[in-house]
Request: fold
Amino acid sequence: MPRYHPRSMRIEHATHDDFLEILRDVADFWSSSGPPTRTLPYHYPFLVHEFADTAFVVREGDVVIAYLFGFVATAELVGYIHLVGVRAAYQGTGLGRALYEHFAAVARERGCTHLRAVTAPFNTDSQAFHAAIGFEATGPSQTPAGLPIYPEYHGPGEDVIIFSKPLAEA
Ligand SMILES: CC(C)(COP(=O)(O)OP(=O)(O)OC[C@H]1O[C@@H](n2cnc3c(N)ncnc32)[C@H](O)[C@@H]1OP(=O)(O)O)[C@@H](O)C(=O)NCCC(=O)NCCS
Reply:
C-alpha cells in the first residue's frame, strides 16, 4: 500500500451518504480498537450536518477509506477531533496524519491555538498515533502505570486520555 500525502489526495467534506456508509462499515474502520459497538454511539449525525465544514472524508473511487469528524469548540478556541477512522487495509499509510493536518489548517484559520482529542486508555494504537504526530497526553490523574487520565470523562467507569497539541503559527 503506498503512503498517502496531504497534497496527493483529495480530502472532501463528508456527506450524509458517507455517514451512512461509515456506520454500515464501522467494524472495518474500528476493529483494531475494541468492539465497534462501543464506537457506534459516538457517531452523532450532527457531526456531518451542524459541523459539516469540519467533517472530512478521503475516498478511493466511490468508497470512503478514511474520515475525520471534528469541530471548533468555542468555550476555549480549540480544534476538537471527535472521531478519526481509517479502513483496516489502509491503516499506516499516512491517511490519519493527512486528515489531522487538514483539520489543523482549518482550526488555525478559525483562530484556534490548540488541537484536542480524547482516547480510551485501552486504545494503544490511537495513543501511539497521537504521540507520533506530536500530541501530548494530559489528564488530572494518573493510572498506576503513570498514564495521565481524566477519570470518568465519558461517564461512570469510562476514563479517557486527553491529547493536546499547540497549533504553530502558519
Ligand atoms: C489511529 C488511526 C486513525 C491512525 O491513522 P493511520 O492512517 O493508520 O496513521 P498514519 O499512517 O497517518 O500514521 C501517522 C504516524 O502515526 C504512527 N502510527 C499510527 N498507528 C500506529 C500504531 N498502531 N503504532 C505505532 N505507531 C502508529 C505511524 O507510524 C506514523 O508515524 P510516522 O509518520 O512518523 O511514520 C487509524 O489506525 C485507525 O483508524 N484506527 C482505528 C480507529 C481508531 O482507533 N481511531 C482513533 C481513536 S481516537
Summary: The chain is about 25% helix and 30% strand. The first helix runs from residue 16 to 24. The radius of gyration is 15 Å.
